[in-house]
Amino acid sequence: MQSRRAAVIKLFTSGKSRSQIAYLLKEGKMFISRTLKRYADTKSITDKHRPGRPRSVRTLAMRKNVIRQIRRNPARSMRKMAKQMKTSKEMMRRLVRHDIGMKAYKIQKHQLLTTQTKQKRLIRSKAMLLRFTGGLHKQIVFSDEKLFTVEQSLNQQNDRILAGS
Fold first, then answer.
1. Which of 7-11, 25-29, 50-54, 110-114 has the lowest mean pLDDT?
2. Euclidean distance between CA atoms 30 and 7, whole angstroms
3. In a domain, 146, yes or no
4. How far apart are alpha carbons 22 and 7 in whole angstroms?
5. pLDDT digits over 100-111, tens only?
6. What does the alpha-carbon distance between residue 111 and residue 1 come to, in Å, rounded to a whole number?
7. What's the confidence (pLDDT) of residue 147?
């Protein structure tokens, strides 16, 4: 911000008009006007003192740290991040939602039907119909054994990930 303001002052003192400065720097005319007014009033281009309590927790360093953790593991709990950083859960939610612009959402189950999957289903269903026409379906044996899958089961209530909005 300081270098943009310094460039405005330098161009103005060299004799350029406000519209020429806006064109050269590709800045808005209001930014140029406010910078020149601030310089005329205070002879300085530094930021004005802002009233109120300065941020002590939701700082830029904290934001970068949270972004790094989310990139490493998007399914990480905001509660755990808050506990690790010794801050409140609400503050962590506010930082993620408002400062970073992300929100937690539930993973939804749905069938992935690509054209390749549809083609495979068609072939398999035709093959199954052929088996039933020959009476081979009566030779199928059912057992009470459990099939264990390698895939992890999905808990929609607890398994959430963070994503940009």
1. 110-114
2. 15
3. no
4. 11
5. 998 877 777 777
6. 50
7. 67
* Total number of domains constituting the chain: 2
Domain that holds residue 21: 2-42
Question: Does 14 reside within a domain?
Answer: yes
Let me know if residue 102 belongs to a domain.
Answer: yes
Domain contains 95: yes
Distance, CA of 141 to CA of 81 (rounded, Å) = 51
37 and 64 belong to one structural domain: no
- The contacts of residue 104 (CB under 8 Å, 6+ apart) are 78, 96, 160, 161, 162
Q: 118: which 2 tokens?
A: 């549809």
Q: Sort strands 160-164 and 102-106 into parallel, antiparallel or unpaired.
A: antiparallel
pLDDT at 82: 93
Q: Which H or E run includes 160?
A: strand 160-164
Residues 38 and 65 in one domain: no
Mean pLDDT check: name the lowest of 26-35, 93-102, 113-122, 127-136.
127-136
Residues 35 and 71 in one domain: no
- The reported pLDDT for the residue numbered 164 is 66
Write down the pTM of the prediction: 0.44
Q: Residue 95 in contact with residue 62, Cβ under 8 Å?
A: yes
